[in-house]
Specification:
114 residues
Length: 114
């Protein structure tokens, strides 16, 4: 069973930054496009950023210019650098495959509040 482990969330003030990490099993990491998703209370889960195994990236309009997705092949890890955070970025953040999804992890809570 594929296990995805997210970390790096926390409480940050508006305008602040966080970097999320997701360790991905080596068996799928090198060949799978990955994505970062988020789910705010009462809302559907949405894709905010994705990256292919060839490092092509794509972003939701709401985070474009503020978030950066990247991957470290040596560490089997996908990152989401989040800058200029806004209160509306508050959500639980998950990583998963972009086109093939696996069992969802527990996610990591990001709270943007003064």
């Amino acid at each position: 069973q594929v296990q995805l482990v997210e970390s790096g969330g926390g409480l940050v003030q508006p305008g602040g930054s966080l970097r999320l990490s997701c360790v991905v099993p080596r068996s799928i990491f090198s060949s799978t496009s990955m994505g970062w998703y988020r789910q705010a209370p009462g809302m559907q889960r949405e894709l905010v950023a994705s990256i292919t195994h060839g490092d092509y990236t794509n972003y939701a309009e709401s985070v474009k210019g503020r978030f950066t997705i990247s991957r470290d092949n040596a560490k089997n890890t996908v990152y989401l650098q989040m800058n200029s955070l806004k209160p509306e970025d508050t959500a639980v953040y998950y990583c998963n495959g972009r086109y093939i999804t696996y069992a969802w992890g527990q996610g990591t809570q990001v709270t943007v509040s003064s």
